Amino acid sequence: MQADIAKQLKRGQLSEAAARSQAARLSPTLAFADLARCATLGEAVTLPLRLTPSPHPYPSSPPLARCEMVVEAVFESLAVKRQIFAQLEAICPASTLLCTNTSALDIDQIAAAAPSRPHMVMGMHFFSPANVMRLVENVRAARTAPAVVAAVTLVALRLGKTPVLVGNCPGFVGNRMLAPYGVEAESLVTVDGVPPRAVDEALSLGLGMAMGPLAVGDLAGLEIGQAPRKAQGLYDPDRHFVDLLNAKGRIGQKSGSGWYRYDAAVGGGRQPLPDPEVGALLRAHRARNGLSAPYAPRAEGGGGVAPPAADELVERCLLPLVNEGLRCLHEGIARTPADVDVVWILGYGFPAWRGGPMHWAEAQLGLPYVLRRMREIGASRPELGAAFARRWEPSPLLLAAVEGRTSLAETLARLRAGTRAAPSKL
Ligand SMILES: NC(=O)c1ccc[n+]([C@@H]2O[C@H](COP(=O)([O-])OP(=O)(O)OC[C@H]3O[C@@H](n4cnc5c(N)ncnc54)[C@H](O)[C@@H]3O)[C@@H](O)[C@H]2O)c1
After folding, report:
1. What confidence tens digit (pLDDT) does each residue in 36-57 have?
2. Which of 69, 276, 32, 79 is nearest to 156 (CA)?
């Protein structure tokens, strides 16, 4: 946090006075006991908390009397987070809210490590850099109390953030929708042979995303998600190209290479530059996996066909993302299409003027068109097998909206009132 403040000061994004005042409010420490020095949240935040605290399970340990809330942000590991929550359970008073900044883990399992107060546990998924990005996904777990949802919402608002309440599932709303988007972008390059820059430019220059998906991967770091892949036995550099990039130490901007290469002398080392070495790695990867890559240059072992138009690349990457958003709505993980849109505009650089992915799909493309394209694309590559077709299966909400000729909001209301959609978990 101190490094971020210094960086913003250097770039002229913060005045000296603001930087000093922000730094003065931080009290870094490595000792849990120092949590007692935390400032109070104030009446505006604590007011809605009308909970009867359960008796403290460890009466002999000195409670951290002034600590009203903890936001845990340690490694993305369920085991480490559960260990921290067990420690917090032991030292914080029963009235302390315990939040986790996990990006994708099961918050119910984290809450189970604080057995006296699962009702006081909630996800608070800030976006990086947390001092700049406005979005916070506030994640309600199965046993989070309504008063805790209200208090955590107020905390986010007092921090100047825009909280969106979402349900607990792997990746919540934003990262869950990001996954199929990344899979399609990667598949366009590795399987179809579209150059990385063509994919990124279709999404950035064509649609208006702040950055293309592959450049975003390089910015965030391609090592993100590798630990869980290894833990689940999925890591395989021979079959998965991002695993191969990792194995080669190409983890993005911070290592000077990823999908692209970076040169400290060009754009401060942050400008993606085409890298012939990626072409060579792709060629070897395709040969190993028997991929014909029609759109790859012949020099990379491809068919040399001109890549599809930008509109088609946009559909290939974004329709599965839209479909996953519709699944979140159908399952009650997101409350409204507008909530999904806010997540993607404020958290992932979706162009605000397009209204977000749900609005784009419904008002600009039209849901019947989205359904038709999902089916056409899903049926277009039988050689890629059932896994490809599964990625393009339309969500039940899309089918119901097109069948009923009703808007997403009306369809959801109808399904939630009946039994054909999970009631909102929020
Ligand atoms: N980096 C992002 O873009 C981003 C965005 C949103 C959410 N998150 C989430 O924030 C969390 C942290 O991610 P990060 O990227 O900052 O990771 P990081 O590896 O940069 O930092 C994790 C920190 O946790 C500390 N830590 C690890 N084990 C600990 C323990 N037992 N006790 C105390 N501290 C411990 C480490 O020393 C390190 O400083 C993760 O849950 C991640 O999913 C990260």
Report:
1. 565 555 544 443 444 444 444 4
2. 69
Which residue minimizes the CA distance to atom 8 of ligand 1?
A: 103
Does residue 236 sit in the same domain as residue 146?
no
User: Which residue's CA is the closest to the ligand 1 atom numbered 26?
Assistant: 74
**CA distances for 294 relative to 185, 188, 195, angstroms:** 16, 10, 11
Which of 32, 34, 70, 75 to mutate for ligand 1's pocket (most ligand atoms within 8 Å of CB)? Answer: 75
Domain count, the chain: 3
250 and 326, same domain (yes or no): no
pLDDT in tens, 177-206: 999 999 999 999 999 999 999 999 999 999
Residue 229 sits in a domain of what CATH number? 1.10.1040.10
Out of 262, 282, 307, a domain closes at 307
Give yes or no for residue 100 CB within 6 A of ligand 1. no
Question: Is residue 175 included in any domain, yes or no?
Answer: no
Distance 136 CA to ligand 1 centre (A): 16
Closest-CA residue to 188 (of 270, 310, 271): 310
Same-domain check for residues 111 and 154? yes
- 77 alpha carbon – ligand 1 mean position (Å): 9
Q: Tens digit of pLDDT for each residue in 262-310?
A: 999 999 899 999 999 999 999 999 999 999 899 998 887 789 999 999 9
Q: Where in the sequence is the domain holding 320, given as residue range(s)?
A: 311-417
Residue 31 CA, ligand 1 centroid: distance in Å = 16
Looking at the domain assignment, is residue 13 inside a domain? no
Using a 10 angstrom Cβ sphere, with 0-12 exposed, 13-18 middle and 19 or more buried, the burial of residue 81 is buried
Which atom belonging to ligand 1 lies closest to the Cα atom of 104?
43
CA of 87 to the centre of ligand 1 (A): 17
Note whether 217 and 273 are same-domain residues.
yes
Whole-angstrom distance, CA of residue 304 vs CA of residue 308 = 12
